[in-house]
Amino acid sequence: MSAQVERLDHNMAKLTIEVSAADFKEAVHKVYLRQRGKIQIPGFRKGKAPQMMIEKMYGKGVFYEDAANDMINATYPAEASACGLEIVSSPEIDVTDIGEDGMTYTATFAVKPEVTLGAYKGIEVPKANIMVTDEDIENEIKSELEKNSRIVDVTDRPVQNGDTVNLDYAGTVDGEAFDGGTAQGQPLVIGSGSFIPGFEEQLIGLNAGDEKDVEVTFPEDYHAPELAGQDAVFHCVVNKIQTREMPVLDDEYVQDTSEFDTVDEYKENIHKTLIERKEKAAQTDKENAVVDKLIETSEMDIPGAMIDSQVSDMYNEYAQQLQSQGIGIDMYLKYMGQTESALKEQMRPQAEKRIKTRLVLEEVAKVENIEVGDEKVEAELEKMAEQYKMPLEDIKKYFGDYQKDEMKKDLAVQEAITLLCDNAVEV
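^ thats the sequence. predicted structure below, dont judge the formating
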């Protein structure tokens, strides 16, 4: 076994690994032992044919592909770790030679780019406005009142903006019905913009029991390509009209729905909550601003393979999020009229931004000698135990040395962000 690494342009590298004839022969024999039970050779009971007879009938290389995969899986991780490079992408494997004399394969991958930092102290950022206005407070109160409102039937007037209507509809294009164009008992909030543009407005003024043909045009970017840009007619029947009845803000309401006794106390708490919310949002905006400006003034050559790996990670994360909501990624793509490659292409700019953000922050941590000790990891684990209401020892079972090292890196990056913000200048 031998390995040689070669640096390529744009932070790519190629690792060439040679597997000896003896090691490859052993790998081929192991594949034979694994697969012989599936192979039938005339004159031999199933699973009893000698290796040389199978190779004679099907060719000398009948087991080569699986043996090569086994050898790659067995040798690449160790050789990649030993090559001295920080690999940041999945490898592209190419078997260049294979036979009785052994096998040779190459693994081409991206390596972590070097970063030349711009000036990272004294970065100018916009001064945040955390003032809370009376309008802010009223909007928050309105939102809270809506949460405690109730839906009541309307029988004495026609549909108004903001009402919820229950309707039946049947849509046609050029007189022909289409998939998804018919529904019974469909609830629709007028003014929500959840239906095709122009649909909801045409229901205003109708009474319960009224019928109307609603004429609309599907948007050019509609998710179903066969309907995009098409004129359609929906025959609608308004079954029921409902509206939201808001509670009255008084001391009684405050006592029933909060820990406070008076409206004044309630408003004062809302003011305090909004201040805290704006301060948190302002801090996030400041962090994003300093990092964005540092990226602009820093230099780094991001290899495409590194971005590809980040995109794949983001795509898989998104698929898992959808699955947790009971939606398969294939179903989502079909509904949205998208392909996997198109969705990944949309994710590419964000993937590149994530990489650049991480690289500049790691470089700041390196330049500033920011190191995170075991005591900070312990404190972080204690926070997690409290957050998840679990014993600390149970939390620790999920964190081996690798996970703790990754946590140290994340904490160092967060300290780098804090350093940037502390040294930023608000203008």
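The chain has a mean pLDDT of 95.
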